[in-house]
Amino acid sequence: MARATVSTATLTPAQLAGIACIMCGGEDGVMVPVGEVDGCQIFAHPMCMAMDEAEAGPRPVALITPAAKFLLVGPVSTAEERDDLTALGFDLAEELLMPVTVATSMEGHDVTEFEAVIVYGDVTKAVTAAVLWAEALEAGIPVWDIGDHLSPCAGCGKHQYTGAPDEDGDVMCALCNGGGFDCAWCGEDDDRPEPFFVAGTWYVLCPPCLEGHRAAGLI
Question: Which letter does DSSP use for residue 169 in this model?
Answer without folding.
Answer: S
